[in-house]
């Protein structure tokens, strides 16, 4: 049944094939992606006012944030370094405070 040029016998076969093709082939990649996803969810859990908010290092660590996993680093012309996990980032401030920002 169905189209003459169909590639899969049913939705189960199609989903199984695509899941097999698209899965992360190595544990390392899967673990890194999970860590980035967790960091993103932690940053996203803070309520941003005008695209930013302030928090402490301790609060981030208590939620399970891992400072070793970021997606990119943005350095301003003044030399200030923002660490980003996708579109959410943080800027280290004095006294173990961090400013969380959202890139527009």
Structural descriptors:
elongated, alpha+beta, five-stranded antiparallel β-sheet, 5 strands, 35% helix, 104 residues, 3 helices
Describe this structure as you would to a colleague:
The chain has three helices and five strands. With 104 residues, it is α+β, with helices and mostly antiparallel strands. It has one domain (11-102). The longest helix has 18 residues, at 27-44. The radius of gyration is 20 Å and the shape is elongated. The model has no long low-confidence stretch (mean pLDDT 91).
Give start-end ranges of low-pLDDT stretches.
none
**DSSP strand tally:** 5
* H/E element sequence: HHEHEEEE
Tally of alpha and pi helices: 3
**Average pLDDT across residues?**
91
Structural class: alpha+beta
Helix content: 25-40%
Distance linking N and C termini: 48 Å
Shape, principal axes of CA atoms? elongated
Strand order of the biggest β-sheet: 1-5-4-3-2
Proportion of residues in extended strands: 15-25%
Biggest sheet layout: 5 strands, antiparallel
Radius of gyration: 20 Å
